[in-house]
Amino acid sequence: MRAARGNGVRGARGARGMRPLAPQVAHAPYVGSRALLSRAREVFDVEIEGLRRTRASLGRSFVDAAKLFLDTTAAGGIVVVTGVGKNLHAAEKISAIFASTGTRSIVLNPVQAMHGDLGMVSGSDVLLALSFSGESEEILRLVPAVRRHGLKVVSMTGSDTSTLAVQSDIHVAIPCGREACPFGMAPTNSVTATLAMGDALAMAMVDARRFTVEEYAANHPAGAIGKALLLTVRDVMRTGDRLAVVAPSATVMDALMAMTRAQSGSAVVVDRRGKLLGIFTDGDFRRLMSGASEGSGVSRASRTSRMPSPSRILEVPVSAAMTRSPVFALADSPASELLKVFESRRIDDLPVCDRRGRVVGLVDLQDLPKMKVI
């Protein structure tokens, strides 16, 4: 008697050697490139229009909120930012940009706040509550709790008549219009506008308190930003064996040999006290060679004394071929300013001097990327 085949499936095996059927993979319906790009552009259009609307709404409430934050932090308080859902992420970003630009701030999770985290705040602080609907239960429960601690409340919502707006001391409207989501539900346009309003407050307060780039650098000691802001010219300049230095009496040959030893494209020319007189670059050498070559076909009588023959080029005093009184950088100036000098002057090498005009180093444009200055 033959064994019955299992479920009529061809090739099915017994229980021991049963090979599981491959799972069925559901494939998403095909969407053309044009449709994808069209939808993407529509999202941009919706959010750009939302930013325009929110910008147009700026007025007294924005000024009042900024002044309250400035007064609060000046008195030793902090700006406590809160939100729920996607707005909690927005709160984290807004609080971070506040803190990094001089406005002391923390983030308060509204759920955790009701279970002990209210101990993080004090009556000298102010609450910034984010809720586009203005009806988030977690935020509405938090408001009376922080008021019992003595905090004032600033809110950002999409409606002046929302419960949160009415319960706030200051309400900053976010009238951005509909969400970019096709269902009109996923926080997209509203979060973008809320983040922009947070940036606007942060930057307005930067100007108001005259927050400096040095203070900003102190808040960013690590990473590319920290390096770019905290590095000085002294930190990136070439010194010692990597610095080619010659006297004005040296010949072009002497300068070229010094440049070769230092593996540098230039040599600085200094007087006996080490003060900068000029710089001799490979560009200066090429121009010198070019002038001598052009003059080699001219009669000896018409050749000027400043145009030596090609065979005598290397014997020319470097002082006759150098660039006199070149631009230089001070050793203790910020390294972040170097790129502007290189771009505006169209140079590759920059002498570095101390405040007495004595050469202490040289910055080579090629070194800046390695030092994370560019």
The run of helices and strands is: HHEHEHEHEHEHHHHEHEEHHEEHEE
* CATH homologous superfamily label of the largest domain: Glucose-6-phosphate isomerase like protein, domain 1
CATH architecture designation of the largest domain: 3-Layer(aba) Sandwich
Structural class: alpha/beta
Cα Rg? 34 Å
Approximately how much beta-strand content do the residues carry?
A: 5-15%
CATH hierarchy, class of the largest domain: Alpha Beta
Q: For the largest sheet, list the strands in their spatial order.
A: 2-1-3-4-5
Shape: elongated
Largest sheet: 5 strands, parallel
N→C terminal distance: 83 Å
Query: How many domains comprise the coordinates?
Result: 2
Indicate the low-confidence ranges by residue numbers.
Answer: 1-14, 296-305
Question: Which fold does the CATH topology of the largest domain refer to?
Answer: Rossmann fold
- The total beta strand count reads 12
Q: What's the average pLDDT? A: 88
Question: Can you give a write-up of this model?
Answer:
The structure is a single chain. The chain is an alpha/beta fold. It has helices spanning 33-56, 60-74, 86-100, 110-113, 137-148, 163-167, 189-208, 213-218, 223-230, 233-236, 252-262, 282-295, 318-321, 338-345, and strands at 79-83, 105-107, 126-130, 152-157, 170-173, 245-246, 266-270, 276-281, 323-324, 329-330, 349-353, 359-364. Strand 10 (329-330), helix 14 (338-345) and strand 11 (349-353) form a beta-alpha-beta unit. Mean pLDDT is 88; it is low at 1-14 and 296-305.
